Amino acid sequence: MHRTLLLFGLLMTTACTSGAGGDPGDDDDSAGDDLIDDDDATEASGGCGQVPPHGAGRVALTLDAGPEGDGTRGFYLSVPAGYDPDVPSALVVGYPGTNWLGEQVQPYLGLESVEPQSNEIFVYPDPLWHDFAGWGNLGGWILGPYAQPADGNEDLVFTEALLDWVEANYCVDTERVFATGHSWGGDMAQVVSCFLGERFTASVPVAANRPYWFEAGTEWVNCSGETAVWTMFGVADDHFTSQAWPGEYGDECRDFWLDTRDCDGADSYTDLGFGEQDECVEFTGCSSPVRYCLYGPDTAHQVPAYYAEAAMEFFRGF
User: Fold this and answer.
1) Which domain holds residue 173?
2) Which of 54, 56, 147, 247 shows a CA-CA span of 20 to 30 A to 216?
3) Domain annotation covers residue 256
4) For residue 83, what is the DSSP state?
5) Ranges under pLDDT 70 in the chain
6) Helices 154-169 & 184-195, crossing angle to 10 degrees?
7) Which residues are registered as beta bridge partners of 60?
8) Is residue 226 in a domain?
9) Which residues of 55-88 are buried (b: 16+ CB within 10 A; e: fewer)?
10) Hey, is 104 helix, strand or coil?
11) Rounded to whole angstroms, how far apart are CA atoms 148 and 43?
12) Is the pTM of this model over 0.85?
C-alpha cells in the first residue's frame, strides 16, 4: 500500500512531558541520509537529524488524519529518555482492546519495562466509538473492507497517518516497525500485518478474534508485504466462547498465516521455549517467520505472563 496520505497538522491535547519545539510540518527527508551507511540509507526516516516536537517521556496527542481517517485522532506517544535524533529507532505500535485508549493499554502490555532501550519508540493509538450493527456502541477498530460490521478502511488510513507523522518527526528505522495488540487490538495487529504489510516488519497479535477480516467471499485475501506474525491465543479464552474446539480462533489465525506464508504445515515447527513444551512454536519453510502460542487455561482472554518479554525479544531480532 503506497504512502498517499497528507497530514494536516498536530494538535496537542494533554502533555505529560514536553520538550524542545520543532516544526511538525517539516518533511525534508534529506536530514537522515547521512546518519547511517549509504547501503542502509533508506532505513532512516525523515525525522532523523531534526529536533523533535516533544522531548523524552509520554505525551497524549492528536493529529488530523484527514476525512478518510475519520479526522482528528488521538494517540499516546512514548519516547525513551536517551532518545538520539541522529540514531534510527525501532517503532512499536500497540493497539488497545474494546473500550480502551492507548494511554490505558500502555501499562497493561508492559512492553517498555522489558530491559528499556534508548532506541525504541512506542505509540499507542486510540480507537473511536461506533454503533456496530448487532454489537452496540463500542470503542473498537475498523478492520478493513471485509470485516462486517466493523468493515471499512478508516483505521488503516489512520495507522498510515500515524506512522507518517512519527517517521517525519522522529528518527525511525523504517525497516523495524512493529505492531501488537490485545483482543480487538489483536484483531487490528493482524489486519495491519496483511493490509499494511509493506509498512510493518513484524507483529504479535494476542487474543484476537477468528480471521473473518481476511475472508473475501469464499477466498482468503492477498496480503501486501512479508510481515512476520506471531499469533498468541488462550486455550481457554473466555471471551470468544462459541468455539468448536479449544483454541479454535487462534488456530484459524495460525492457519491463515501458514497458508499465506507457504509454510511446511502445522506439524512442522520448532519449540520456542515459552510456557509448556510446544506451547509456543515457530513453523518451518515459511517465506517470512510465522509463530504461534496456544497458552494455558489459567490465562483465559488475557496476555500470557511471558508476552512482553517474548514480543520484545522477537522485535529486537530484526
Assistant:
1) 10-218+296-316
2) 247
3) no
4) -
5) 1-42
6) 80
7) 14, 76
8) no
9) bebbbbbbbbbbebbbeebbbbbbbbeebebeeb
10) helix
11) 36
12) yes
